[in-house]
Amino acid sequence: MSLLPSTDVTALNASLGSSAPPVVNQAAVPAVVRNGSAAAKQAYRQGLEFEQVLVKQLAQELASTVSTPSAGDSSGGSDGDAGDGSGGLLGSGSATSAYESMIPDALTSAIMSAGGTGLALQLARAIDPTAFASQATGGSKR
Predict the structure, then answer these.
(1) pLDDT on residue 133
(2) What count of other Cβ atoms lies within 10 Å of the Cβ of residue 118?
(3) Most buried residue, 8, 62, 109, 129, by CB count within 10 Å?
(4) What is the distance, to the nearest Å, from the Cα of residue 72 to the centroid of all Cα atoms in its chain?
(5) Is 63 helix (H, G, I), strand (E, B) or coil?
Protein backbone atom coordinates (compact mmCIF):
# COMPACT_ATOMS: atom_id res chain seq x y z
CA MET A 1 0.00 0.00 0.00
CA SER A 2 3.00 2.27 -0.06
CA LEU A 3 3.21 5.10 -2.54
CA LEU A 4 6.79 4.15 -3.29
CA PRO A 5 7.94 1.11 -5.28
CA SER A 6 9.90 -1.39 -3.19
CA THR A 7 13.23 -0.33 -4.70
CA ASP A 8 12.54 3.30 -3.81
CA VAL A 9 11.51 2.28 -0.27
CA THR A 10 14.83 0.47 0.22
CA ALA A 11 16.83 3.43 -1.06
CA LEU A 12 14.81 5.87 1.01
CA ASN A 13 15.22 3.81 4.18
CA ALA A 14 18.98 3.74 3.63
CA SER A 15 19.11 7.50 3.21
CA LEU A 16 16.82 8.30 6.14
CA GLY A 17 18.23 5.74 8.56
CA SER A 18 15.65 3.71 10.46
CA SER A 19 12.74 5.97 9.59
CA ALA A 20 10.46 4.25 7.09
CA PRO A 21 8.44 6.21 4.53
CA PRO A 22 4.83 6.68 5.40
CA VAL A 23 2.53 3.90 4.28
CA VAL A 24 -0.73 5.47 3.23
CA ASN A 25 -3.93 3.72 2.27
CA GLN A 26 -4.35 4.34 -1.47
CA ALA A 27 -7.96 5.36 -0.88
CA ALA A 28 -6.68 8.22 1.29
CA VAL A 29 -4.41 9.57 -1.46
CA PRO A 30 -6.10 12.57 -3.10
CA ALA A 31 -7.45 11.91 -6.59
CA VAL A 32 -5.43 14.81 -7.96
CA VAL A 33 -2.31 12.85 -6.95
CA ARG A 34 -3.54 9.35 -7.90
CA ASN A 35 -4.52 10.54 -11.38
CA GLY A 36 -1.71 13.09 -11.66
CA SER A 37 1.66 13.12 -13.31
CA ALA A 38 4.85 11.55 -12.00
CA ALA A 39 5.95 15.01 -10.83
CA ALA A 40 2.75 15.39 -8.79
CA LYS A 41 3.28 11.98 -7.19
CA GLN A 42 6.91 12.79 -6.37
CA ALA A 43 5.95 16.14 -4.81
CA TYR A 44 3.24 14.38 -2.78
CA ARG A 45 5.76 11.76 -1.58
CA GLN A 46 8.05 14.55 -0.42
CA GLY A 47 5.14 16.25 1.32
CA LEU A 48 4.21 12.99 3.03
CA GLU A 49 7.75 12.44 4.23
CA PHE A 50 7.88 15.93 5.73
CA GLU A 51 4.44 15.49 7.27
CA GLN A 52 5.56 12.21 8.85
CA VAL A 53 8.57 13.90 10.44
CA LEU A 54 6.37 16.72 11.72
CA VAL A 55 3.72 14.37 13.11
CA LYS A 56 6.39 12.26 14.82
CA GLN A 57 7.92 15.32 16.49
CA LEU A 58 4.48 16.47 17.64
CA ALA A 59 3.69 12.98 18.96
CA GLN A 60 7.00 12.85 20.84
CA GLU A 61 6.28 16.23 22.41
CA LEU A 62 2.76 15.11 23.33
CA ALA A 63 4.07 11.91 24.89
CA SER A 64 6.69 13.82 26.86
CA THR A 65 4.02 16.05 28.39
CA VAL A 66 1.91 13.14 29.63
CA SER A 67 4.63 10.66 30.55
CA THR A 68 6.58 12.69 33.09
CA PRO A 69 4.75 14.57 35.82
CA SER A 70 6.43 17.88 36.55
CA ALA A 71 7.49 18.57 40.11
CA GLY A 72 6.55 22.24 39.83
CA ASP A 73 3.08 21.66 38.42
CA SER A 74 0.91 24.38 39.92
CA SER A 75 -2.39 22.80 38.86
CA GLY A 76 -2.45 20.05 41.46
CA GLY A 77 0.62 20.44 43.63
CA SER A 78 -1.28 21.71 46.68
CA ASP A 79 -3.68 18.74 46.75
CA GLY A 80 -1.10 16.51 48.40
CA ASP A 81 -1.16 13.89 45.63
CA ALA A 82 2.24 14.76 44.18
CA GLY A 83 3.85 11.81 45.95
CA ASP A 84 1.30 9.15 44.98
CA GLY A 85 3.77 7.35 42.67
CA SER A 86 1.81 7.73 39.46
CA GLY A 87 4.47 8.04 36.77
CA GLY A 88 2.46 9.63 34.02
CA LEU A 89 0.17 8.15 31.40
CA LEU A 90 0.98 4.46 32.00
CA GLY A 91 2.02 4.68 35.62
CA SER A 92 5.53 4.00 36.81
CA GLY A 93 7.83 1.04 36.48
CA SER A 94 10.45 -0.43 34.25
CA ALA A 95 7.98 -2.28 32.02
CA THR A 96 5.86 0.78 31.32
CA SER A 97 8.85 2.90 30.32
CA ALA A 98 9.39 0.58 27.35
CA TYR A 99 5.80 1.08 26.25
CA GLU A 100 5.97 4.83 26.75
CA SER A 101 8.76 5.01 24.18
CA MET A 102 6.50 3.24 21.65
CA ILE A 103 3.58 5.65 21.97
CA PRO A 104 4.91 8.36 19.60
CA ASP A 105 5.74 5.81 16.88
CA ALA A 106 2.34 4.12 17.19
CA LEU A 107 0.51 7.43 17.11
CA THR A 108 2.51 8.62 14.10
CA SER A 109 1.92 5.37 12.26
CA ALA A 110 -1.81 5.48 12.91
CA ILE A 111 -2.16 9.08 11.77
CA MET A 112 -0.09 8.59 8.63
CA SER A 113 -1.72 5.30 7.62
CA ALA A 114 -5.10 7.01 7.81
CA GLY A 115 -3.95 9.61 5.29
CA GLY A 116 -2.12 12.06 7.52
CA THR A 117 -3.33 15.50 8.45
CA GLY A 118 -3.82 16.79 4.91
CA LEU A 119 -0.68 18.87 5.03
CA ALA A 120 1.13 16.73 2.41
CA LEU A 121 -1.08 17.87 -0.47
CA GLN A 122 -0.62 21.53 0.45
CA LEU A 123 3.13 20.98 0.67
CA ALA A 124 3.14 19.16 -2.67
CA ARG A 125 1.37 22.08 -4.33
CA ALA A 126 3.97 24.43 -2.87
CA ILE A 127 6.87 22.16 -3.88
CA ASP A 128 5.81 21.84 -7.52
CA PRO A 129 2.97 24.20 -8.50
CA THR A 130 3.30 23.28 -12.19
CA ALA A 131 2.49 19.62 -11.47
CA PHE A 132 -0.89 20.64 -10.06
CA ALA A 133 -1.64 23.55 -12.38
CA SER A 134 -3.47 21.44 -14.96
CA GLN A 135 -5.75 19.87 -12.34
CA ALA A 136 -6.59 23.22 -10.82
CA THR A 137 -7.71 24.69 -14.13
CA GLY A 138 -8.99 21.44 -15.67
CA GLY A 139 -12.55 21.83 -14.40
CA SER A 140 -12.95 25.45 -15.50
CA LYS A 141 -12.70 24.99 -19.27
CA ARG A 142 -15.29 26.91 -21.24
Answers:
(1) 84
(2) 11
(3) 109
(4) 31
(5) helix
